[in-house]
């Protein structure tokens, strides 16, 4: 009776439950499709903890210690399988799941080439600023002892640069100062030195405080740079300021101020600076071995406007004006004073943007006006007025993860006027002959370049490019091929090799039909460079061998004034070691050089005036939080000079040696900024270095050219608000 | 016996429905998946387990193509990177540290691009820059001002976000007094963070809500440095009260304190 009813209920319940169970039973028949596999790197080694998943679905698994992964997919369909892991390129593959069969996939991940390493470790490159392989930042320039906070002074403590004089001129690996191009934000600066002299000048015009980065190459530089036979100094000005900064500096010979203002954070910013320098008190305090009719005096002012209009797009307007004056005695012409007065006005509008996520475009348009007044008693009274216009467009296209194509086009217009007169001793009348000068030269130069960078693997990277150039004065179309290779060896060693052809056109004045030769061609050089670099966390070691072959150099000619029959070579070895400890930094540079040329007024192949066989510098810095002590020791072998009428560069000056010490002390006087007090002692040992010998016309009387100051002191203070 | 059978039969369908739901996990709403991952990350941090941190990070990565709040997912990937950075720093694996810092910064930059007014992204960015400085102290000169600027932006966006003050306090602690930092400034900022944590309510459970215990860990660390061991212990215990599983205080700071007290 009861049992019967209960039995019926149970059956019903079983039946209903079965109905309810049915769908899930059917579904669980389809247990899903197994997706499994193994993840390895390019050498076959398994990679653990790789995130393997289906894009757009919360479905996936992490690979285990053996690189194996496994997960279940519910439905058939087309999916994108993704495998990602930090340090590797993300892997993506479309897969189709159509059957119930388990799918086994083997995934190989490629190591990600870190961007900084992809920017080739080319031969002979030293970069400063943010990034890997930093060897010189603008702050380091300021703290480099003996550099007097001058970019060129600091660059001179690197190998490959010969100490010819105490000026700022860069004589690079047996090349003349005129063979190294100086560039700021893409614009070539033809007169980057103050107080210009045949050896360059004293101090660079651009203060390191205006810069974000400095790229210096002593040879083998890429096709991006042209019209330079020996070296490149490429400077980049500051970016948008992060926060407001006001800096005032007062020193023994200078007054400076800098203001940085972010007007609209990350969008618009402005920085302004002004410098005034007057060396009168400096020379009065330290004494001077030359007399002055005008103590070197200079001022400069700069305005830098930046507009970041999108995340990758920005415009920058850089305005700069500089004026410097000097009146200094010329030792071998008694009672004669050389007076120089230079004014530079420079404006550069530069632009950069990333188009369609693949093309990095940049360009700039610049105008420079350089006016130089030179007077040397009655012998020389000349006004040089140069107007340089330039426009440039450059593009970089990432073809793939391992190939980058770079191309650019640039146009220059150089307009130089000379007005004044020269006076020469006239042998015939034993009086003098005055030549009037009123000339104007214009030259146009158009260049196009292209280069391809290929990373074959994380170990081998190769760059090949060409540069085409044509010049309105010399009837030539030039093609310079250049190539470099970098190979990663074991234990953080890199091998770099560079080969290339370089051209430089003579200055427009040399094409003058009367005093020059209108048929001149470009001078040419081949660079062969082989180097070994070792980088670790705290050490950089670099050894480089180079050979440079010079052809078509200008040489004096009786009939044609100048011809391209000059030639020469320079070869040598550069050694560089940099080591950083927690409180102590040291930098050692040594160069061996042999530089011989038959050019200009050399009668035969002879050592050039910048043939300095041994050049050695040591920079050491001790950092004790607030106190910084720095030392610079320089040694340079003697420089060739001519001692007899029928000789040429037959003797050498004694070696050049100098020890400089600098001290800087950090404190906080007002506001939040860092304030610095600095003291610099130049030529601590008081050595009387002889820089050159100049002879009277009959070669009877040698006049030794010595440093302007013996031991000298400089001090100053810089306040940041 | 029958009753048991009945119970079993009634429960099974419900059971099966649950299995069905679990199997078709692609139907989990994105917000739930995100919340699950956030909890997963916190657990990994408490256990100081690298594999679990990586798993949480992996889930966030999958969420990028799945969630509607990509900016928030990028933030959490960066937060996972922060924890992984701290993990590898403690085991002195410099190369790994660099990779995670770089990845974290990239993700935060993307997050900021997608949502410019999320103060926590800026605070976390400052935190990662700070990690970069502890790896290479010479970068302090460049990154120090950047940290200040990023924190200023964060504070302007959300002056009452406690994590902004927490990161400001950590940064002040690591900056020499000469350059605008120092222990006094750090304590001031950390106290403000502690105060704000008492009343702070995140706009939703998906928004970051970490850091309360960390404030007290840092206050305790500073007190320990100043040899005020009693105060340090008080702070550490407060941290553990908020999160009894807090790895750093439990297994690193407290043992250090005990050693100093003896």
From TrEMBL, chain B:
Residues 1-22 form the signal peptide. Keywords: Signal, TPR repeat. InterPro entries: TPR-like_helical_dom_sf, TPR_rpt. SUPFAM superfamilies: TPR-like. TPR repeats lie at residues 213-246. Gene3D superfamilies: Tetratricopeptide repeat domain. It comes from the Bacteria. SMART domains: TPR. Pfam families: TPR_1. This is Tetratricopeptide repeat-containing protein.
